[in-house]
Amino acid sequence: MADDAKRYGSSAFIAGYSDAKQEQYNQYLKKLHRDFIDSWNDKPQDQAKLGDFEQQKILGTGAFGVVYLTKHLITGKYYAMKMLEKENIVKLKQIEHSYYEKKILCGLNFTFCVYMKYFFKDNVYLYFVLPYIAGGEMFTHLRKLGKFEETSSKFYGAQVILALEYLHACELVYRDLKPENILIERTGYIKITDFGFCKLIRGRTWTLCGTPEYLAPEIILSKGYGMSVDWWSLGVLLFEMSAGHPPFYASDPMRIYEKIVAGKYRCPNHFSLELKDLISRILQTDITRRLGNLKSGALDFKNHKWFREIDWDSLLNSRFPAPFIPKIRSPGDSSYFESYEEEKIKESPICLYEEEFADF
Questions:
Q1: Rounded Cα distance, 350 and 352, in Å
Q2: Going residue by residue through the chain (360 aa), what tens digit of pLDDT does each one get?
Q3: 311 to each of 250, 251, 306, how far by Cα in Å?
Q4: CATH class of 43-134+328-360
Q5: CA pseudo-torsion sign 184, 190, 191, 192
Q6: What is the rounded CA–CA span in Å between residue 133 and residue 115?
Q7: For residues 192 and 174, what is the distance between their CA atoms, to the nearest angstrom?
């Protein structure tokens, strides 16, 4: 594998996206950054209540609560309503995380990221109302197919690169990239979701969080880290999409961590030379050599030979052909989501943890 990369050498980079184009795009990202910071400093008021929505079915469950498919009774539009139980948030010491997730979702404004449409709270729950993405999780499609063709991995990976470039321009480190957190729209394009681990940073942070197989070595080694960890997880994602399994895996998380820190993995034989080269440049344990973290930033991805078929401007404007279009029969079609047992929604005559969530 290392020999392949060496043989492939600097020819992996092609003049596909010019420095001038990137500079122009950077100006656009700066404007989006200013918009995000304005939203971050703002204190938006909640604009809805539970009675405005009709809950239809559970789309997913987690440690803090459930996600429902809901219909907005006034507009007739469908949304994903994330109901976070205050008691669980307090027990798991995640008050600050949930507060920042709300602030981040309210400020996001990028085509490949979900955003907050409405938010509110009641005596028992916090509610995040997000766009409903009917095509389901990438994870579901990946498990069904076993692995993606490289054309599909390329299409999805390029959108993830643009999403991470946007988040980093907004001083946000995402920290939870994985197929479960990538949703497929009815157009075949993606949206990144679940910003529970996302954090506004200026400098470095030390929190150990994320999914074991996707953790960067600098997180495991408690070195303090920045945006570089997201580029590492992109390398893991490109590998998993194209192989059907992550590059570092074992039944024991400690063994996974050992493999990650050693940076040892094997690419399947069916990987193209270009993909092997790209992954070898991303899964660098030395962050000073990791693609995405170098002087040219995301431009190094845009000009890598594996992405030569990608028209980045067309992709950004959703004009690049998608390799797979989900069959969505109606706006509220939930056939791409698993079925879950209905859960009883809790009620309380008094406002629980009112002081803890006073700023929400």
A1: 6
A2: 444 444 444 457 765 799 999 999 999 999 999 999 999 999 888 789 999 999 999 999 887 889 999 999 999 999 999 999 999 999 999 999 899 999 999 999 999 999 999 999 999 999 999 999 999 999 999 999 999 999 999 999 999 999 999 999 999 999 999 999 999 999 999 999 999 999 999 999 999 999 999 999 999 999 899 999 999 999 999 999 999 999 999 999 999 999 999 999 999 999 999 999 999 999 999 999 999 999 999 999 999 999 999 999 999 999 999 999 999 999 999 999 999 988 889 999 999 999 999 988
A3: 37, 40, 12
A4: alpha beta
A5: positive
A6: 12
A7: 10
Which residues pair with residue 60 across a beta bridge?
Answer: 67
**2-29+137-316 and 43-134+328-360 in the same fold:** no
d(CA 101, CA 108): 11
Structural class in CATH, domain 2-29+137-316? mainly alpha
Q: Where are the alpha helices (DSSP H) in 12-149?
A: 19-41, 86-91, 95-107, 138-145
Asked whether residue 82 is marked as a ligand-binding residue, the answer is yes
CB contact at 8 A, 263 and 232: no
Residue 101 identity (one-letter amino acid): E
CA angle 200, 201, 202 (to 5 degrees): 135
CA 180 to chain centre: 9
Which sign, positive or negative, has the C-alpha torsion 33, 34, 40, 44?
Answer: negative
Question: Catalytic amino acids?
Answer: 176
So where are the chain's domains?
Answer: 2-29+137-316, 43-134+328-360
Q: Look up residue 240 and give its two tokens.
A: 């998993």
Residue of 192, 203, 202 whose CA lies nearest to 161: 192
The continuous run of DSSP H or E covering 255 comes out as helix 253-262
Tokens of 39: 């939203």
d(CA 234, CA 283): 9
Tell me which residue has tokens 């009774």: 73
Please list the residues that pair with 125 across neighbouring strands: 85
Distance CA(231)–CA(223), nearest Å, equals: 17
